[in-house]
Amino acid sequence: ELKVEQNPLFLSMQEGKNYTIYCNYSTTSDRLYWYRQDPGKSLESLFVLLSNGAVKQEGRLMASLDTKARLSTLHITAAVHDLSATYFCAVERGGADGLTFGKGTHLIIQP
Amino acid sequence: DTGVSQDPRHKITKRGQNVTFRCDPISEHNRLYWYRQTLGQGPEFLTYFQNEAQLEKSRLLSDRFSAERPKGSFSTLEIQRTEQGDSAMYLCASSPPGPRNTEAFFGQGTRLTVV
Known about the structure:
heterodimer; A: mainly beta; 5-stranded antiparallel beta sheet; 0% helix; B: mainly beta; 4-stranded antiparallel beta sheet; 11 strands; 49% strand; globular
């Protein structure tokens, strides 16, 4: 059974600091997705990583994928309060359509 | 609004009642997914349609759950004889034609509370 593990599950940090969220998954997959969810809202797609070594950046967020290590990272640079949200990584379900999600990382950025 | 639309946004029902949710995907998207999300968890895959065909159902989808997409456009998810454990956010997502797991766009969800 495919498992997707994120850590940390909860992170409180100060504005201006850097931090990394980790996503490990248990089976081979060439595709990994990062989503953001604000309280009471739906999921917003952040990044789609389609191959080993893929790196994508948007503003203060950068995501990377190492398929050999089955690891993706989401790096936050010089955090700002607006980035407070829950971040999910998700992986293809064993070659089928649909995704398996991690439990999410609840991120709070304090002024 | 050209995003994925779900209705209703909130539903409170008594245990044992039937409920039905609707999802309208982005118009040119042929793939449609239903997920369930409980508090503090990530979304869990329930079922998937390509056009009007339901191609896969999760083991999570008991026989009290049924989903349809009759004309390959909107979809409905019905839960019969609701139980308190059915309380969750039900999310619908759609994807355009193309390779599997092309980027999915999620709706706002329907929050179900069974009392």
